[in-house]
């Protein structure tokens, strides 16, 4: 096995760190600078009209809470391996977010967290991160389906026949899923996955669901309050249901973290267009949500990436 000199290894690690941070900031700049749908003049005019220190502070607080609940979720799940502090969980979550920003569906996040643990724990870290993200996806689907049913009852976007077909497909997938659960692929099966999930203590699962629900409530209402700030006057349940639908459908599409606002924005334009909301407002709010909940944490995460120290090999 070829031995890499210590200084060369340090240089390579630094190079990787700079590539991650440089790539993250390049993609952020590229999306903000080259989006021709962002009408900055309209935004500045509206901002000056409605600017409020209290309002801005409240929106920023929701961003902090959104990421804080994610950090608490990871701290809670990491107990399966070892107890970690909130600060350590913050480092791992934000550094992993930075590493995953330009990877499909944030898969780089899994590797980012695994680097903070011994190699022998890598598989468990990836599994726990899957549980951490999985509960958020399940909640998005559950709230999204209720939102879609409410939205459809009011605006009849999907016909009754289509709803019936979708329900039949869902039942079919569930039946197939049930019968195939024992089939193994490379030693893994759905049944084995369930056993591993059940191996995690119930209080950890319960806390994970609770924190995931709080996080969902926070970011969906941040979206809601931004619409109010942009003078969008629609009934509460209509707005919340539409937000739930947008998150549900956008999360179902494979994408990159740095394109998150573009995907959510395009889905949002369609549904909020039905409600008569101006396209530029929808694009701006989607971009602001992305900036507040992805870009700002990535900036903080860059600090932790730069200060990351590789574990000495045994």
Q: Termini distance?
A: 15 Å
| Topology, number of strands | 0
Regions with pLDDT < 50 over 5+ consecutive residues? none
Shape: globular
SSE order, one letter for each helix or strand: HHHHHHHHHHHH
Radius of gyration: 21 Å
Question: Would you tell me the overall average pLDDT?
Answer: 78
Structural class: mainly alpha
What's the story with the biggest beta sheet? none
State which percent range the strand residues make up: under 5%
Number of helices: 12
Which bin fits the share of residues in helices? over 70%
Summarize this structure as a short list of keywords or feature phrases.
single chain, 314 residues
Q: Could you characterize the architecture of this molecule?
A:
The protein is mainly α. The protein has a domain at 42-79 and 126-297. The protein is 75% helix and 0% strand. It contains 12 helices and no strands. Helix 3 (53-78) packs across helix 4 (86-100) and helix 3 packs antiparallel against helix 9 (202-229). The model has no long low-confidence stretch (mean pLDDT 78).
